């Protein structure tokens, strides 16, 4: 990750302990899985090529404090991308550009659950 990308982080990022698939809402295809997430962005471990500086409409589910699925749909802007060690995978940093307030509150609650690990 470039120094400028690290400098733009304003919120702590929580590691995602389970495999959470991320789906491109426009195509219905899985594009990767969550690595970590904050209230303002996420690290995506992409299994399909994403374009630098592109916008995507993505969705995924996290389990809330009761184990119920919390559906999240976001607009994401790819800020940076680096090849991962596994063939065909890359690390992508995305900034949320469209997250409805109700989902932002639910995501904030998830981020504040006890037992989380932060990066």
Automatic annotation (TrEMBL):
Occurrences of domain PilZ (ranges): 9-112
InterPro entries hit by this protein: PilZ_domain
A Pfam family annotated for this UniProt entry: PilZ
Listed name of the protein: PilZ domain-containing protein
């Amino acid at each position: 990750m470039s120094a400028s990308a690290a400098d733009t982080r304003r919120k702590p990022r929580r590691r995602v302990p389970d495999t959470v698939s991320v789906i491109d809402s426009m195509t219905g295809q899985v594009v990767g899985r969550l690595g970590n997430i904050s209230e303002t962005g996420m690290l995506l471990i992409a299994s399909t090529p994403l374009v630098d500086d592109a916008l995507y409409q993505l969705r995924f589910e996290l389990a809330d404090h009761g184990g119920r699925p919390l559906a999240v749909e976001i607009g994401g802007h790819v800020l940076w991308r680096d090849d991962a060690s596994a063939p065909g995978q890359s690390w992508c940093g995305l900034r949320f550009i469209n997250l409805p307030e109700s989902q932002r509150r639910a995501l904030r609650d998830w981020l504040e659950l006890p037992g989380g690990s932060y990066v």
